[in-house]
Amino acid sequence: MFVITKPNTSSEQIATLQAMVEDLGLQTMIMQGSQKTVVGIIGDTKHVPEGAFLNLDFVECVKSVSKPYKLVSREFQKEDTIVKVRGIPIGGKAIQIIAGPCSVETPQQMQASAEAVIAAGALFMRGGAFKPRTSPYTFQGHGEKGLEYLVEAAKEYDLPVVTELMDVRDIDKFLKYEVDIIQIGTRNMQNFQLLKEVGRLKVPVILKRGMSATIKEWLMAAEYIAAGGNTNIILAERGIRTFESAYRNVLDVSAIPFLKRETHLPVIVDPSHAGGQSWMVSALSLAAIAAGADGLLIESHPNPDQAWSDGEQALTPTELKDLMNELRLVARVLGRDLGQRNVVPVSAYSLDKTTQPLAA
Ligand code: PEP
Ligand code: MN
Q1: How far is CA 156 from the centre of its chain?
Q2: d(CA 95, ligand 2 centre) in Å
Q3: What confidence tens digit (pLDDT) does each residue in 275-304 have?
Q4: Any idea which ligand is nearest the CA of 183?
Q5: Which ligand 1 atom is the nearest neighbour of the CA of 188?
Q6: Which residues does residue 175 pair with via DSSP β-bridges, in sequence order?
Q7: 285 CB under 6 A from ligand 1?
Q8: Which domains does the chain have, with CATH numbers?
Q9: Contact yes or no for 159/117 (Cβ under 8 A)
Q10: Exposure winner among 121, 124, 237, 290, fewest CB in 10 A?
């Protein structure tokens, strides 16, 4: 059971509420949001007198949620969560595209990557500075230097950045470089200590699905972050492991409508790590958008043949731009649109992949 307070409730009022709960022999968990405080009541709440809480003038409502994931469930919150990143909404009507290389390699590569992201019309840039690699003998990322290259290149174009955090000991570096969105990768989806720590931040989090995680496990992982007070969570489906080995992972398209029903959090898709081949990215992206995804996380590289990691799945700048044009058409058919800086009329685009916009 959750007791949700009105905005600007004081700490003394919260203490009053806590004392009332403890008098009933139950425990509380305080979740401090930016506006409201949510007081979770832990224990057997069958005989809790809800009315006594509702009588307190600082209490907005009392909610009981039957799902195991509580704060992130649709049952808890009917309206879609819209995560705002420097004023840009993720979730809601607009579909947001995040593009950029797997790894941050050099300042020149990041500069060219940022130019390609801007030229394609995407609003966010990705790039890994701390890389979770299967082999300890492959490039592990530049670490802090990588954050610097990423942020430097992005700053010139005012692009918010997404980058992966693997270790709680690096959080201060992410805060120092003002990373806009922290990515928790597939291998860390159940690193509960990491989830708890990002739950204490205000920075938005992209939580990727563990490669063999069920939806329930994934949403429970999101609940860890929300329980810390950070509800700026974006779920990213990036393909799961199955018996199929023809491609890197299997994009679980079914997860998209299922999650949209089960949770109020925005859902994005990473078609690059799903298919593992650049030629698959367009089809998987279109499928994701058609199924209701709120955005895409796409790997692109100024020169995929030279990429230090995941080059085979990276789009070239031209491919990225062409894909954006395709996605825009599909989004508009669905009554949505790609997030954009300047609105371009749909008539300016042709369905032909190779055709550039007819008018600026
Ligand atoms: C990545 O996005 O760079 C990455 C490593 O993805 P995943 O965690 O989905 O494998
Ligand atoms: Mn990658």
Answers
A1: 23
A2: 22
A3: 999 999 999 999 999 999 999 999 999 999
A4: 1
A5: 8
A6: none
A7: no
A8: 2-63 (3.30.70.1140), 83-348 (3.20.20.70)
A9: yes
A10: 290
